């Protein structure tokens, strides 16, 4: 089984792509990275420079070689079975918006679909890739560049003792539809929703959360308030 481990960096609230990285990863008798690419995408401005450290003039230096990198990325995508991103919902949207038809295989979310056994969260909450890596005993030198984050996730996979089972369980979970639910709490009880890792949507005035349908019943049993499907 081949996975395409992928990460993106964006430059603005429109999620304009300014960097993409990917590693083709084999899961089998011998598991590990096969090939990798990482390239900047030319942009004129980067409102997220303070976070990812990518200066727009640096992206312009990617002319014209970034196109060759994207062509190699397409070759890797053509032979992969699943695309994997730590926050797949975000990266899926970015890739489909700016590189349509690049990836035709299903996506798996390493944060929400993979059961790492990470003790400080449950399968319904979110956490950082760096949190997972540190828990696995992986040192961290740099973050917020696509290539760095892909290599970090690859090393997390390398450290797992039963990688095939991890992936097979994630595939099964990913086939369950994603639901958005809202917490039925009063203003006075809003802390309950926050504690259960619901997020506040100021426009809709609701506490909401995304969750796999197959996990909903068990999750609801852990709550001391009611929910409804949006």
Report the β-strand fraction as a percent range. 15-25%
Question: From the helix content, strand content and strand pairing, which structural class follows?
Answer: alpha+beta
Distance between the termini: 36 Å
Element pattern in H and E: EEEHHHEHEHHHEHEEHE
Low-confidence stretches: none
State mean pLDDT (0 to 100 scale).
Answer: 93
Cα radius of gyration in angstroms: 19 Å
Number of helices: 9
- The global form is globular
How do you describe this structure in short?
The protein has 230 residues and is of the alpha+beta class.
Give an overview in words.
This protein has 230 residues and is an alpha+beta fold. 35% of the residues lie in helices and 24% in strands. It has nine helices and nine strands. It has helices at 49-52, 56-60, 66-78, 88-98, 129-135, 146-159, 163-174, 190-195, 213-220; strands at residues 2-10, 17-26, 32-40, 82-85, 107-109, 178-184, 199-201, 206-212, 226-229. The strands form two sheets. It has a five-stranded mixed sheet with strand order 3-2-1-4-5, with helices on both faces. Helix 4 (88-98) links the parallel strand 4 (82-85) and strand 5. The relative contact order is 0.14. The model has no long low-confidence stretch (mean pLDDT 93).
């Amino acid at each position: 089984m081949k996975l395409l481990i992928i990460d993106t960096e964006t430059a603005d609230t429109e999620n304009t792509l300014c960097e993409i990285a990917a590693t083709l990863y084999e899961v089998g008798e011998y598991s590990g990275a096969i090939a990798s690419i990482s390239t900047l995408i030319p942009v004129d401005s980067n409102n997220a420079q303070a976070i990812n450290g990518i200066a727009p003039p640096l992206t312009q230096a990617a002319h014209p070689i970034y196109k060759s990198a994207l062509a190699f990325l397409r070759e890797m995508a053509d032979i992969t079975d699943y695309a994997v991103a730590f926050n797949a919902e975000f990266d899926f949207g970015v890739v489909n918006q700016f590189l349509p038809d690049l990836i035709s295989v299903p996506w798996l979310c390493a944060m929400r679909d993979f059961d790492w056994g990470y003790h400080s969260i449950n399968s319904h909450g979110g956490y950082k890739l760096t949190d997972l890596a540190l828990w696995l005993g992986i040192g961290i030198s740099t973050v917020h560049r696509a290539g760095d984050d892909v290599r970090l996730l690859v090393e997390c996979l390398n450290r797992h003792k039963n990688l095939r089972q991890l992936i097979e369980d994630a595939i099964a979970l990913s086939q369950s539809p994603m639901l958005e639910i809202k917490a039925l709490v009063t203003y006075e009880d809003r802390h309950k929703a926050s504690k259960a890792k619901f997020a506040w949507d100021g426009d809709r005035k609701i506490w909401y959360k995304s969750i796999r349908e197959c996990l909903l019943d068990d999750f609801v049993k852990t709550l001391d308030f009611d929910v409804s499907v949006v």
